[in-house]
Design brief:
It is built from two helices and four strands. It is an alpha+beta fold. The chain has one domain. A four-stranded antiparallel beta sheet has the order 1-2-3-4. The longest helix has 27 residues. 21% of the residues are buried. The model has no long low-confidence stretch (mean pLDDT 89).
Length: 97
Amino acid sequence: MRQRGERYWSWADPSLHCRTHDETLDDGTIIDVQVRLSSAGSTQMFIGVYASSGMHIFEEIRECRLGESMTRALAWGVGRARRVATETARHKGIDEQ
């Protein structure tokens, strides 16, 4: 079970339509990307990276570029989450040496 951080809880709003992408990477790291339309019609994004234990490693909230679709924002966010997870794994490997 994921242990959400403060950023997630400040972003969460179940009344807004949201699209999500959840993925478990080969090393067990979990990425969670969510995009939604704000009540004003702008696209907003949440990016979360979690250890296999569920502990949050990285959480970020982003306002998307004006006019950016939820589909395009979701694709960009998935790429960003994968890069963050890769960098985190690389630093973890260096720290353990």
